Amino acid sequence: SISGPVVTSFSPSSRLILLGTATPRPSSGVASNLVPLLNIFTYQWSIESGTQFALDSTTLRTSPTARNLVVRENVLSPGSSYTFKLTATDGTGVESSTTFDVTTNTRPTTGVIAASPTNGTGASTKFTFTATGFVDPDAPLSLSLEISRDGGNSYTTILTDYTSLSYTTILPFGKQDEDFNITVRGRVKDLYGASSFPATVVVQAFRPANASGAALVEAVKNAAESTLEQARQSGDVTEVVSVASALGEMLSDAGSGSGSSGEVENVASDIVDTLDAALSSGAVTEGAQQAAAETAANVIEATGSGSSQEFKEKAASFISNLIDKTLGSGNGMSTDTGKAFVRGLAAMMSGGSGALAQDLFASVKSIRNQTSGNLVPGEDPVTIQANGVSTYGAAAEAEDVQGNYSVGEYGMSLPTSFSLGTSGVITVEIIGAESQPYPETDEGSPSTGVTSITFYKDGVEYDISNHSDPLTIFIPLANGASNMTLSSCLFWDETEKTWRGEGCTYQLFNEYLAACMCTHLTDFAGGTLVTPAPTPAPSPSSSGSSPSGSGSSSSGDPGTGTGGVPLVMIIAIVASVAGVLIIVGSVVGVLKAKKKKKSMSRGAIKVRVENQNERDVVAVQAPGDFVASTAIDGGSRPASSAGNSEGGVAVVASIEPMAADGGSSMPSSRPSSSGKP
Fold this sequence. Notes:
Layout: E1 2-3, E2 16-20, E3 41-49, E4 69-71, E5 81-90, E6 95-103, E7 112-116, E8 119-121, E9 127-132, E10 142-148, E11 156-162, E12 166-169, E13 181-189, E14 199-206, H1 214-234, H2 237-255, H3 261-279, H4 286-303, H5 309-328, H6 335-349, H7 355-372, E15 382-386, E16 389-397, E17 404-407, E18 410-413, E19 425-433, E20 444-446, E21 450-457, E22 460-462, E23 471-476, E24 488-493, E25 498-500, E26 504-510, E27 513-518, E28 523-529, H8 567-580, H9 584-594, E29 598-602, E30 605-612, E31 615-622, E32 626-632
Parallel strand pairs: 8-14
Antiparallel strand pairs: 1-2, 2-4, 3-5, 5-6, 7-9, 9-12, 10-11, 10-13, 13-14, 15-16, 16-19, 17-18, 18-23, 19-21, 20-28, 21-22, 21-28, 23-27, 24-25, 24-28, 26-27, 29-30, 30-31, 31-32
């Protein structure tokens, strides 16, 4: 069967989602060895009737052989009828098919966008844009406008779904290298959301003479005090957002290298205050929310990383309120709106930590969840990358969750044993941030950014812990491993508000990529895990804590495992070695006389004592080629000051796993451009 939109007229401006379902045929009369094959299906979509188009990646967000079909926006022809066909074939080769009919709405005919005047001064001249010649019987019609200051390469929304086809507003300054030209692109929508093709007009918005640097900041400030204040007093939310959007564009230009960071922040603060007051007064369209989010991102970026804590808190509160309003509208969150939110949040996260940075990171997580929450299994992932933050969201059938998932160099690789069952829809969400939002704690010190991974099953967060085989979480090293203190995999314990390392081992792939091999999922980083103070060595039969040396380890932190060795294995080895090392006391006496290499063994553990550079060195080799060593100076006590002094028991200073050939077994290649190692 196929389920799809239940409307008499579907907007071709929207993506079409058709959900397919196949159920096994009765097993009566089927040979017993073939019955299991009745539950295995392959799928094929086709267009039975209507305007034909290729079912490929240019027109679809899914594969034509997936169970579900998602057709991209603006692919279907307006005013047309389509019959989509789904054919399912079970494991025995028996086929069954069904169809679904879709009729598209006609879009408004494309007219023209006229501007009056066609030139003026940015931030002061009021331009009127009027749409004419757009015809559609499904009234009322609405107007949306975008502007571009780089010749049409990128656009910023200034107006959406305005109920009149004429609108008056100020514009930001044009750019000098573009001859101060601003391209204005307009679309008209009908009652059902079908949008016309765009029409454009070019106007000139000159910059006042000598308006650069501090003078440009002053010009934006004056416009904020006059034009933005007039818009606020009018009570028209649309006008406030439009004017603020223009000022945000100009402030973004002025903020860089103006030498007036205090003034830039003051103007940015006024814009945020005015937007916050206007948007909190009532319902706001989805387009106005997007425009406000883009404006917030512009003014936040304009203040730079040196903005005050007070401004960051104000801007963060505004974005948080706007996110709540966006989600409360019931329209969900578009990828473009989410991208604007992430851009602003990421700009404030840069270089910060503590409660505010954690709140900002939590907001990014919320946006990631909302922008990927309406995906269907098999649909293309949604990714957002801005200001050092990358997010990823994808949906899949539970039985299809396997392999690698990544955005840039952030991501994970699942073991072949990983399974989330055979039913349900799984959403995989990843977020990576170059700036670490969590602070250093007594238990751990992060040296990298953060990689966060979450699974949802049928919309509910799915707990993954104590998995039998570790999951590999990738942590990019933006500045190179040689510039970082890295020895452990850390994960953030949200309950205890601290870093921990249980269930994880750390591996450095190369100069630019590390990984945490963990049995659970949360927020991860690379860094240094602080181990507890040394405790007395237990007896060989004890299951308590093992001795902890004070010497540094060349290949990892001994508290969490070194080079991929589970903590429990190290404890077991050290506990066994502690008993064996009691023998060392007597061996050392012999050494004083002979100064020659001696070897003895007890079971599978070998103790080797030799003279190196006039120092006696005790080396212990345990099963699996784990080697521990320490030096003895003069007497029978270890050179290390820590440890148990009774009976000449030496402290294990390091434990290093060795590959069978004596070399490293770690991968040496950096991930491919897809981010998959």
